[in-house]
Specification:
Low-confidence stretches of chain A: 1-9, 342-346
Oligomer: homodimer
Shape of chain A: elongated
Structural class of chain A: alpha/beta
Order of helices and strands of chain A: HHHHEHEHEHEEHEHEHEHEEHEEH
Largest interface: A-B, 49 and 49 residues
Mean pLDDT of chain A: 91
Helix content of chain A: 40-55%
Distance between the termini of chain A: 94 Å
Number of helices of chain A: 13
Largest sheet of chain A: 6 strands, parallel
Strand order of the largest sheet of chain A: 2-1-3-4-5-11
DNA sequence: GGCGAATGCGCAAACGTTCGCGCAATGGAA
DNA sequence: TTCCATTGCGCGAACGTTTGCGCATTCGCC
C-alpha cells in the first residue's frame, strides 16, 4: 500500500520532488538550478545531477506567476505576401531559442490588430514585443507602454514608446541611385509604397535625394502597394510609355514589387537591362533566381534580428533604458538587372 | 497616508480585486466570469460589468498553473522556402484567436527539432500541437504522447500517436493526370520529392497510378528537393533531352518546384504549353501570376486548418478520443500552363 | 577567548486561478 | 412542524516557483 497523495502513478518531477529527494529545501533547489553562488558548488552539482536523472523540467507558468517573467516574446508579423516577413520570423525563431525566449504569435497578416488579440499581450505576460507589421495601432503601443512591456520594431522606424532596428534605408537607396547614375541613367521611376510604410518612405527619399542632387529630373512616382501585383501593374504602365518619356531605370522599394516589375517587362517584351534597368531592396533569396538576377540591397537580417532581441533582452532586465534606434547597413548586391558595370558601359 | 500593501500605485485588476469590489468570494468571481449557472444571473451580470469597468484581464499563467490548461498550441512549421507553410501559419493564426487559442512557435525551418527546443512543449504546458514540418523526430512525438498532448499533422500523413489532416493528394494528383491524358499527353515527367515528404509521395503515386492505368509508359522521375532551385535544375535536364524522348507534360508535386520548372523552360526557350505542359500542386497565390498561369490543385487551406484546430480542440477536451485522419478534396484549377482544354485541342 | 563577517541554507509568503466540498437560506412536500 | 431538495455562494487547498529575510554554523581576526 503506497500513500495516495500522488494521484497519478507518474507525475512530472517538480522542485518539491527534487527537494525531498535531495534532502534540502525547495528554495535551495530553485537557487541551485539557476547557479546561485550562495549555494555550495557540491550541492549545486548534486541537485543538477538529480534534476537530470528525474527529467525535471521547470514549469513556465509557475515561474511566470511568481517572478512576473514569462520568457515569452510577442510577435506581430506582417503580410504573408511579402516573403521578407517570413524570413524575418524564421530568423527570429532561430535566434530566440538559444536566448531562452519563445515566440508567441500575437497577430499575423496585413490587417490591423483586433482588441481581443492584443489582450494576449497581457494575459500571457509577454516580456517584450517584436513588431514587423506595417500598421501598429496606437492602442497596442499604449498597452505595452502602460504595462512596461518593451517594444522593438524591426524594419520599421520607431514610434512613440518603442525602439527600432532597421536597415540603413537612406544609405542603401542612395547606393542604388549612385550605381544607376554611374551607368549613365538620368530618367528614373520609383515604384513606391503608401505612406504607412516608413521603410518604403525612407528608401524613396534616399533615392530621390541622390538623383536630384545629381541634377536629374524628379523621378516618376508610382504606388506599387507593396505587392507583386502592384509592381506588375505599375511596370505595365511604364512599359506603355512612349520611349522618349520612358525612364531608363526603375527602383522598386522592395524586392517583391521588383519581381512584379521584372515579370511585367518580360511579358511586354521590354528587355532588362538592355531597354531598362531595375533595382530592388531587401535581398530576398528569390532575387538571385536566374529569371530575375535582381540588383538589390540585402538587409542584414541575422544581425538585425540579433540586435532586436538583444535590445529587448536589455530592456527586460532594465526597464528604464531609454528607447533606441539602430540602423544597420545592408550590402549592395549587383546583378544583371541593373546592367553592365560602369567600367564596361562607359 | 494610504495603506502600503499595493506596492505600485496602479496594479492590474485580479479576481481578488473584483471579489472585494463586488463583495463576493474570489471563487464566485471566477465562476461568474465563465458563466457558471450555479451563480445567479444578476450576480453574473454585476461581476462582468465590474470586470469591464476595472479592465480585468485573466492571468494566463495563474490559470495554467491551477487548471493545467494553457490555451497554447505549439506549432512546428517547415521551411520558409516554401510559401505554402507561410500561408498555413497565417491561416492558423487567423483561426486560432477566435477559438481562444494562441500559437507558440516551437520550431521553424527545414532542420530537425533540437531537444532543448522540444522542452518548450512541456515548460509551457501546450494543450496541443500543430505540425507541418517534414521531419517530425520521434522523440518529439514521444514527449507529446507521454504527456497526453494531442498532435495533429497538417499536410502530412499521420504517424504514430497523432492525427492528421491532408488534402486528398491521391485524388488531386489523379485529376491532374486525367487532365493531361485528356489532352493527349502520353509521355510524362514527375518532379518529385524525397521519401521524407509523405505528401509528395502520395501525389506521385496518385499521378503514376492514373497514367500507368491509362497504358502510358512509366514517367521520368526526377528529385526536385522540394525547392524552386530543384525544380529549375530538373527542368534544365528535361529541356536538354532530345525531342523524341522528351516528355510532353511535367507534374511537379509542389507549386514551388513548378515555378522553378516554368522559369527554367522559359530560359531555355521551351514554350509552355505549346512545347510542354506543366502542372503543380498546392494552389499558391503566385500560381496565378501572369508569368506562370500554372494549372494546379488548390489545397483547401482554410478548411484544413479549421479541421485541424477542431480536432485539437476535441482532443483537449476528451483526451481519450482515438487518432483520426481526414483528407479534404482540393479544387483543380486549370490555367494556361496545362494547354488548351480538350474540346479545343481535339 | 570573544566578536563580526562570511558562508550555506531554510521558512514562509507571495503570485492569480480553479475546483471539490460544504454550508446557509429558501422553498415545497409530507 | 419536520424533512429533504434546490439554489447560490464561500472556504480553502491546491498548482510550482521565486525571493526577502533570517538563522545557524564556521572562520579569521584582534
Amino acid at each position: 500500500m503506497d500513500e495516495l497523495p500522488p494521484p497519478l502513478a507518474a507525475r512530472r518531477a517538480t522542485i518539491i520532488t527534487l527537494s525531498r529527494e535531495a534532502g534540502v529545501a525547495p528554495s535551495t533547489v530553485s537557487r541551485a538550478l539557476k547557479g546561485d553562488t550562495r549555494i555550495s558548488p557540491e550541492t549545486r552539482a548534486r541537485i543538477s545531477r538529480l534534476a537530470k536523472e528525474l527529467g525535471y523540467t521547470p514549469h513556465a507558468s509557475a515561474r511566470t506567476l511568481s517572478s512576473g517573467r514569462s520568457g515569452l516574446i510577442g510577435v506581430v508579423v506582417g503580410s504573408s505576401a511579402n516573403p521578407f516577413y517570413t524570413e524575418l520570423l524564421h530568423e527570429a525563431v532561430r535566434q530566440a531559442a538559444p536566448l531562452g525566449m519563445r515566440l508567441l504569435i500575437i497577430h499575423a497578416g496585413p490587417g490591423p490588430i483586433e482588441n481581443s488579440t492584443a489582450d494576449a499581450l497581457l494575459q500571457y505576460q509577454v516580456d517584450g514585443c517584436l513588431m514587423t507589421s506595417v500598421e501598429l495601432p496606437s492602442h497596442v503601443a499604449a498597452i505595452c507602454a502602460s504595462n512596461g512591456v518593451p517594444v522593438v520594431m524591426v524594419n520599421r522606424v520607431a514610434r512613440m514608446n518603442s525602439s527600432a532596428v532597421t536597415c540603413d534605408n537612406l544609405f542603401g537607396a542612395a547606393q542604388l541611385a549612385q550605381l544607376l547614375l554611374d551607368q549613365g541613367h538620368r530618367r528614373f521611376a520609383v515604384v513606391r509604397t503608401s505612406a504607412s510604410s516608413s521603410t518604403g518612405q525612407e528608401r524613396e527619399r534616399g533615392f530621390l535625394e541622390r538623383v536630384t542632387e545629381a541634377g536629374c529630373e524628379p523621378p516618376l512616382l508610382l504606388d506599387g502597394r507593396s505587392t507583386y501585383e502592384g509592381g506588375y501593374e505599375r511596370a505595365l504602365q511604364i512599359a506603355a510609355l512612349p520611349a522618349a518619356r520612358r525612364p531608363t531605370a526603375v527602383f522598386a522599394v522592395s524586392d517583391i514589387m521588383a519581381f512584379g516589375v521584372l515579370d511585367a517587362f518580360r511579358m511586354r517584351g521590354v528587355r532588362v537591362p538592355q531597354d531598362i534597368s531595375v533595382v530592388g531592396f531587401d535581398g530576398l533569396p528569390a532575387a538571385a533566381r536566374p529569371c530575375y538576377e535582381l540588383t538589390t540591397v540585402e538587409q542584414p537580417l541575422g544581425a538585425m534580428v540579433g540586435r532586436a532581441l538583444g535590445m529587448l533582452q536589455a530592456r527586460i532586465g532594465h526597464p528604464s533604458l531609454p528607447d533606441e534606434t539602430v540602423s544597420l547597413r545592408g550590402a549592395l548586391i549587383v546583378r544583371k538587372s541593373s546592367g553592365s558595370p560602369p567600367s564596361r558601359s562607359r
